[in-house]
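Predict both folds.
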Amino acid sequence: MTQTRWIRLTEWPLAAAAFLFLAAYAIEVLAQLEGGALQATETIINVTWLAFIADYVVMLALAKKRWHWFRHHLFDLAIIALPALRPLRLLRLVTLVRTLQGIAGDAFRGRVVSYVAITTALLIFVASLAILDTERDTPGALITNFGDALWWAFVTITTVGYGDLYPVTEIGRFIAAGVMLGGIALIGVVTATLASWIVENVARRDVASQSATQREVAELADEIRLLRIELQKDRPASDS
């Protein structure tokens, strides 16, 4: 068994587990469940978490250079180590979508845009749930409902930060730091994509301009050749 084969076998099951986790976590936070309902959602969360841990352990075991793989997959370790980040495993779906798309130009840019859109929406939603779950019952908390949590996540990930809402707990500040870093990374991706689009369009225009110039030169060469032929035809008549 290789890592590639394992990824292909577990792509959809892990995606389904991530959706299931996200749904259970959202219901638990938004509905403020108690009793048996809370126990049911906790069971779902724990089972899906175990699935992610098992996937990480198998991937590490299948790696040819385990220490090298470990050092280059610290984000995967964070996903299974930090409960608030577990739904980000959904981003594995982008890898599957990538295999179904082309490899050049606009197709690549479309993949980047899709990745950024999915990542942004997911990060905002998960951050809203996490910050609400952390802050809601804390004395002096400013984020006490999902609307405020969603607004806070949006202004934080965009690095605007109005300061009207902010976390007061240590865990809340840790979540805020992660959202800020994620926002900076996403802005970098958008900037790089825009720069790539501008450079490609400039290059495309240059190529078109060069093609037009070459075509005009070829047409002028043809006209000169035809004029030479006509001159050669008329020369004997003029000599006589």
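Second protein follows, with its predicted structure tokens after the sequence.
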Amino acid sequence: MTTRARTIPAGFERATPYLCCKGAARAIEFYTTAFGAKETMRLAEKDGRIGHAELRIGEAAIMLSDEYPDMGVLSPATLGGSPVSIHLYVDDVDALFQRAVAAGARASKPPSDQFYGDRSASLEDPFGHKWMFATHIEEVTPDEMQRRYDAMTAK
């Protein structure tokens, strides 16, 4: 029996990053340890290669797979890096940052308070993906944000 499908699946109402990882099973282990991700599904081939997996980091959905060069699906490791960063809000950016570095992430920018009202940090995971995590700490109006930005860039 089938039911009528929602045109947008529940939990996927926002943009969903789809990561290609050289070693997707290891990537899932890393994201679980470092970012507290929860694996919600995995389609694996007999040889262990992951054709598709889905994770949740908080409410954010992340999809990923292994490389499939014949289909043009290549990882940052093969491409020599990635120009894209994934940004997620978390309850405690300092704790996540420490846990991720301990799990093998490379610290790009340690947690610090930002003029726009976030405490944020940047990391690169062992698979070449760039992550920005933030905890919102202050409500800042657009006018105040512009004033602070102007003061910061005037230096």
